[in-house]
Amino acid sequence: MAQILAPNMQCQMKLSKSLTNSMIPNSWTSILLKGSQKGSIKCSTKFKVCAALKTEHGTVNRMEQLLNLDVTPFTDKIIAEYIWIGGSGIDLRSKSRTLSRPVEDPSELPKWNYDGSSTGQAPGEDSEVILYPQAIFKDPFRGGNNILVICDAYTPAGEPIPTNKRHKAAEIFSNPKVASEVPWFGIEQEYTLLQPNVQWPLGWPVGAYPGPQGPYYCGVGADKSFGRDISDAHYKACLYAGINISGTNGEVMPGQWEFQVGPSVGIEAGDHIWCARYLLERITEQAGVVLTLDPKPIEGDWNGAGCHTNYSTKTMREDGGFEVIKKAILNLSLRHKEHISAYGEGNERRLTGKHETADIDTFSWGVANRGCSIRVGRDTEKEGKGYMEDRRPASNMDPYVVTGLLAESTLLWEPTLEAEALAAQRLSLNV
Ligand code: ADP
Ligand code: MN
Ligand code: MN
Ligand code: MN
Questions:
Q1: Helix (H, G, I), strand (E, B) or coil at 246
Q2: What pLDDT does residue 56 have?
Q3: What is the overall mean pLDDT for the chain?
Q4: Which-ligand-closest: CA of 390?
Q5: Distance from C-alpha of 373 to C-alpha of 375, rounded to nearest angstrom
Q6: H or E segment at 10?
Q7: Quick one: where's region Disordered (predicted)?
Q8: Strand segments (E) across 169-218
Q9: Which of 257, 271, 376, 412 is 20 to 30 Å from 100 by CA-CA measure?
Q10: How far is the CA of 110 from the CAs of 95, 98, 105, 268, 384, in angstroms?
Q11: 22-32 average pLDDT score
Q12: Which ligand is nearest to the CA of 303?
């Protein structure tokens, strides 16, 4: 924790008045006095400062002791954190409840409800929205048998509410034509960390810019890597929770990071990305750093943030699969507009044709080409089978929407023969 609180973040140095000097270890005293002399810096993170301090007998450690308390010897009861997507379609909400004993499957969990008028999801006079538990993860914050529960949301009459994108995706993935093709998704979630209050990336001088992009991608060192503790804490939290996280890396823009989840089958890809996003929100909350999934958080010569979605079906992964991939690319070219409109708000600021992106209005594909809408890896070309990467989705996309649409457009949707022939010609695709 102390590492995450970078020393230059002075706003976190003002202390609660109730902390007497005797409780403050020597190493901190000087910083604290300096902080209080400045006096003008408002602190919204009093508790975080306290938690960063290692006092021998202070209230702080006692708080941590309570938070870490193992209750399993005393009760079978567990805490379930019910998580759902709020009215913007990207904000996450959660609340906790006690369950009488540990559970292993979402079917053992009760439905629950929340006040939809407070999340922009229901009118005040009929505000009840019902949560259906769909996927369970271990809770890395509470530990023990406590769980996180990914839910989707319904009206009391049992209709999915408009922001429930999981429902349609689950329908697509349970279609026998789709299920028999065992669709795999590997999602690369990019994100940007911001300093609190100033809306400016972590590690950047406030109101000014760092040196141009180049040294930061997968970079190491205090002047090249900003927020590694958050990325790493998140990595471990995901592994603990049971999320199928496959890696992380520092990104091209300083303060920007990526984690990958997958390959995951069908609806699981969406559940895991949403749970991983939830963990990231909670960890950045603890660190006093702001998370943004905006696709282009800083205008200008800075890479935006995407959510590349790698995709394959059973037949793509088998011998001759490259031909199946080409046919899928052809379908995707014909549904480019539908996909773009479902790939995230503000994506037009990111898909400019520069900074490793393809222009938003033009569909393109290529082998090993990072300036295309769809990239096919060298290995896939060489082996004649494998997967493709859809580079269009923005970091704020809904993985239920993107994975569902990819499966729908490539496995359920069929173009007319005429449209297919024209597109094949245009893209030099002989299928
Ligand atoms: P990039 O080179 O674009 O940065 P990454 O290594 O970040 O790629 O991410 C690639 C993702 O693709 C990983 O999540 C990986 O698990 C996933 N992946 C690998 N093979 C397949 C496959 N056959 N189908 C779908 N996804 C796959
Ligand atoms: Mn990547
Ligand atoms: Mn990336
Ligand atoms: Mn990628």
A1: strand
A2: 58
A3: 88
A4: 4
A5: 7
A6: none
A7: 99-123
A8: 184-195, 200-201
A9: 271
A10: 14, 11, 11, 21, 47
A11: 33
A12: 3
Task: State phi, psi for 76 to the nearest 5 degrees.
Answer: -80, -15
Ligand 1 neighbourhood includes 264 CB (under 6 angstroms): no
Q: What residues contact residue 235 under an 8 Å CB cut-off, 6+ apart? A: 245, 248, 259
Q: Is 263 in the pocket of ligand 1 (CB under 6 A)?
A: yes
- Which domains can be identified in the chain, with CATH numbers? 4-67 (no CATH), 78-163 (3.10.20.70), 174-427 (3.30.590.10)
* Contact indicator for 272, 186 with CB cutoff of 8 Å: no
CA distance 274 to 333: 27
More confident residue, 306 or 41: 306
Q: How far apart are CA 179 and CA 176, in angstroms?
A: 5
Q: Cβ(186) to ligand 1 under 6 A?
A: yes
- 3-state helix vs strand vs coil in the chain, percent to 5: 35, 20, 45
**Would you state the pLDDT for residue 35?**
33
Q: What confidence score (pLDDT) does residue 45 get?
A: 38
How much is the average pLDDT of 379-397?
A: 98
Instruction: Name the nearest CA neighbour of 317 among 389, 387, 388.
Output: 387
Distance 356 CA to ligand 4 centre (A): 10
Å from CA of 305 to ligand 1 middle: 17
Assess whether the C-beta atom of 369 lies below 6 angstroms from ligand 1. no
Short-list 25, 33, 79, CA closest to 53? 25
